[in-house]
Q: What sequence folds into this?
């Protein structure tokens, strides 16, 4: 048993885990290494079943042992188990039958070897290969001193060269595409050798298949004894490069599209802001979430004035409550998805109402819910233009109204109240606007003109206009203002009927007209008188001249000397008559040209009495009765000589042409008529048939009664004298009853 | 040429009457001349029922007292004898209005009314004619 014991001792001290089991698979002995390896207690292990002593997961080993118990076969294999730290442990095992000297199998011997580390090493090339495949990586080796270059199969694959290709540095560098890469690679290798710097470079190669690809070459110098070698990796990075460039491109695209997006946004903003339209976005509660510049400009507002405010509360909608309500109601409809469009009135920055073509457009999301609303408004430009024009023309009209020298007045057609008037009218009528605005048209019409004025107003209402007609206003000073009036009916936008009146103050014109008429009258009267006078002169002088002519002719015919003397006497008489006529004409000329005229205040009664004194003889002889009703204090302004002549002439006439059957009576009275002192001298004489002779009563050389001494000059001179004193003379007469002269003395003379 | 039975001369101016009467005698255009100082006197003659002789031609002054020439014509036109009479208005007026009035009267009445502008001469008297 010594050998057995020795053998057993040998087992005990064996440096590897070894265990000997009997045929019952109970442990006989195990090496110390075994116990160390499996961390088992040596003292309690003898006699234990193998199953308790083997790692629990080593199932394949357990099976082998059971099968080979009692056989002479030697089994080898590997198995693994998890140790207490749950680490995998690989075991290499070998079973041998324990045979004694008798060749009897007494048990089974189990050798174990921990090959966990070995197993790791075994994996490396696999991993490497796998790594190479996955990462498309190959290896290379460069012996610097011998200039030997070795490529792994993967490297050759990358280079797309056959497996039997033998690379050398020259041919390898030739495969590089860029000269620059070659230089850099050579430099990197030199640096790696001399300084030990690692190589890491991306280069582009052209394969024998004429394919361009990017590869990454890395390498590290390793000292092996006194020589240096470089172990390196070659990686196909073409995909990465392509991806990279693709990524670059896509990055560029992304940037581009971002730029485009920014641009779009910018474009949108600029459109949003530069549109002429009023544009804003409202949230579904009606608050302004964005608004464009034109909209703000319309109202002269800033963004903060409106943003996040209820749209209807913003400045634009303060035109009227009605507009605000309308907007609110329409918003309610719009927020339910209805498109709203209507003409709205909003305020502009001058607080003027402007009209906009307004719309509310709901914007829906993909679930058909209103997301927000677009409020849009187009200022109705025509209206703005029209308003502008209206304003201009209003200004023009106002200016014209104010500056017009013609009075312009606006009255209500129905009530007659004054509504507007210009300076000219106020100046003419003397009232201020405040006074006039409380007055009625008829207050300014003179009472006597009211009927006429009402007719005129009726014409205006019936026909739309009336005039120009001459009417009158009463000024504040109660003076009449004559005016040329044109009235036009207009109906304003509210349907109110108004009358515009154009009132031309013609008081100056009227005055001038009167003056002119007077001048014309005087002139035409003078003209008539002159013409008349010319005819008188012509007629009377020609009468005498023809008498001369005829008498002289007779003088030539007549032989009888006595008859000739008779003719010569007649010539003498004719000559005297002509001189007399010329004297009369001179007198008339003197009166008419106002020669020697001297105005004096005369007492009328004094003058009358003076005249009677002058003809006292005549009066006495004819038993003339006088009734003088002139007061003693009555004075008149006259040319005294004319007054004398007039009185004398009329009194004389009254006596000369007395009625045959009664004594003459002269009645003298006076009255005052419109600026005249009218002296009436009435007689009871023959009278004159004025129907027959009226037109020539005051004519020259007109006689009416066949009296031998009538010269037909007296009343003609009287008339001329009274007219020279700006007066006039009239006569009333009835044949057989008497004559009444009315002598008008002008008080303003 | 038919002789004028008589000429009636109506004028208030004695010198005119004298001169014309004398000239009529010299020219012998008629054998008889009747003279009146005014229209009134002449009318009285024409109206006198006892008279049966009427001059066929009247030389008539216009400017006369009581009844002037025009008034005479108006009154004369009412007499039946007027139809056989030619009236010459004697006038020193060269006023066209007077001449127009003469023409107007000529149209107005059935008898002839012409005018004779003073001074009267032998030649003018010789040219007088009855209508």
A:
């Amino acid at each position: 048993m010594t050998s057995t014991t020795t053998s057993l001792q040998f087992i005990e001290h064996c440096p590897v885990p070894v265990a000997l089991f009997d045929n019952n698979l109970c442990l006989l002995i195990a090496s110390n290494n075994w116990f160390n390896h499996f961390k088992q207690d040596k003292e309690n292990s003898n006699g234990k079943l193998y199953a308790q002593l083997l790692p629990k997961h080593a199932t394949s080993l357990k099976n082998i042992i059971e099968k080979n118990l009692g056989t002479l076969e030697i089994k080898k294999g590997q198995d693994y188990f998890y140790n207490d730290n749950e680490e995998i442990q690989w075991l290499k095992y070998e079973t041998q039958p324990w045979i004694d000297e008798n060749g009897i199998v007494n048990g089974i011997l189990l050798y174990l070897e921990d090959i966990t580390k070995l197993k790791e090493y075994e994996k490396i090339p696999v991993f490497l290969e796998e790594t190479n495949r996955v990462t498309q990586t190959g290896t290379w080796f460069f012996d610097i001193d011998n200039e030997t270059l070795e490529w792994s199969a993967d490297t050759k694959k990358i280079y797309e060269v056959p497996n039997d290709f033998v690379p050398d540095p020259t041919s390898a560098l030739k495969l590089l595409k860029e000269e620059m890469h070659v230089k850099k690679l050579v430099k990197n290798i030199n640096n790696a050798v001399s300084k030990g710097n690692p190589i890491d470079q991306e280069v582009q190669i052209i394969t024998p298949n004429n394919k361009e690809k990017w590869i990454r070459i890395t390498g590290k110098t390793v000292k092996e004894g006194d020589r240096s070698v470089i172990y390196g990796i070659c990686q196909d990075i073409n995909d990465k490069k392509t991806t990279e460039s693709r990524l670059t491109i896509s990055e560029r695209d992304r940037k581009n599209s971002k730029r485009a997006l920014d641009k779009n946004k910018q474009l949108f903003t600029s459109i949003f802001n530069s549109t002429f339209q009023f544009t804003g976005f409202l949230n579904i509660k009606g608050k302004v979430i964005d608004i464009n510049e034109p909209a703000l400009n319309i109202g002269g507002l800033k963004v903060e004035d409106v943003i996040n405010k209820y749209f209807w509360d913003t400045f634009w909608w303060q035109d009227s409550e009605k507009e605000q309500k309308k907007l609110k109601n329409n918003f309610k409809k719009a927020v339910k998805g209805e498109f709203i469009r209507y003409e709205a009135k909003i305020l502009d920055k001058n607080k003027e109402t402007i009209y906009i073509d307004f719309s509310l457009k709901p914007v829906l999301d993909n679930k058909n819910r209103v997301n927000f609303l677009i409020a849009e408004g187009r200022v109705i430009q025509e209206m703005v233009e029209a308003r502008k024009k209206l304003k201009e023309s209003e200004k023009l009209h106002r200016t014209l109204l104010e500056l017009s020298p013609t009075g312009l007045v606006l009255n209500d057609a129905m009530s007659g109240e004054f509504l507007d008037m210009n300076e000219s009218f106020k100046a003419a009528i003397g009232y201020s606007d405040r006074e006039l605005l409380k007055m009625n048209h008829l207050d300014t019409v003179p009472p006597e003109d009211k009927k006429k004025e009402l007719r005129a107003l009726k014409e205006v209402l019936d026909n739309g206009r009336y005039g120009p007609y001459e009417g009158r206003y009463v000024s504040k000073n109660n003076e009449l203002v004559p005016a040329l009036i044109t009235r036009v009916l207009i109906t304003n936008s509210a349907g109110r009927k108004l009358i515009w009146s154009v009132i031309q103050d013609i008081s100056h014109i009227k005055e001038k007209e009167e003056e002119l008429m007077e001048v014309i009258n005087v002139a035409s009267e003078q003209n008539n008188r002159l013409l008349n006078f010319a005819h008188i002169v012509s007629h009377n002088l020609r009468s005498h001249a023809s008498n001369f002519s005829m008498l002289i002719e007779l003088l030539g015919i007549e032989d009888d000397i006595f008859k000739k003397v008779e003719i010569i006497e007649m010539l003498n008489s004719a000559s005297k008559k002509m001189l007399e006529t010329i004297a009369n004409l001179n007198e008339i000329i003197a009166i008419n040209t106002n020669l020697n005229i001297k105005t004096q205040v005369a007492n009328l009664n004094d003058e009358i009495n003076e005249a009677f004194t002058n003809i006292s003889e005549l009066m006495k002889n004819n038993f003339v009765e006088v009734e003088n009703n002139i007061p003693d204090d009555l004075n008149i302004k006259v040319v005294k000589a004319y007054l004398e002549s007039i009185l004398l002439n009329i009194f004389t006439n009254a006596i000369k042409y007395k009625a045959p059957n009664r004594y003459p009576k002269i009645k003298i009275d006076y009255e005052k008529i419109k600026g005249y002192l009218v002296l009436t001298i009435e007689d009871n004489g023959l009278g004159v048939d004025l129907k027959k002779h009226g037109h020539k009563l005051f004519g020259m050389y007109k006689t009416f009664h066949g009296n031998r001494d009538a010269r037909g000059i007296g009343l003609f001179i009287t008339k001329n004298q009274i007219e020279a004193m700006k007066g006039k003379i009239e006569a009333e007469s009835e044949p057989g009853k008497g004559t009444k002269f009315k002598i008008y003395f002008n008080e303003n003379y | 040429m038919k002789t004028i039975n008589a000429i009636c001369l109506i004028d208030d101016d004695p010198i005119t009457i004298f001169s014309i009467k004398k000239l009529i005698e010299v020219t012998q255009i008629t054998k008889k001349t009747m003279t009146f100082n005014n229209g009134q006197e002449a009318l009285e003659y024409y109206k006198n029922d006892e008279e049966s002789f009427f001059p066929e031609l009247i030389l008539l002054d216009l400017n006369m007292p009581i009844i002037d020439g025009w008034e005479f014509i108006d009154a004369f036109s009412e007499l039946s004898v007027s139809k056989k009479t030619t009236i010459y208005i004697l006038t020193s007026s060269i006023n066209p209005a007077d001449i127009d009035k003469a023409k107007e009267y000529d149209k107005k009445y059935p008898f002839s009314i012409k005018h004779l502008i003073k001074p009267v001469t032998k030649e003018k008297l010789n040219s007088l004619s009855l209508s």
User: Anything to note?
Assistant: Chain A has a mean pLDDT of 84. The domain at 404-505 of chain A is CATH 3.30.450.20 (Beta-Lactamase). Chain A has six domains: 2-119, 136-236, 275-386, 404-505, 512-589, 597-746. Chain A has 23 helices and 27 strands.
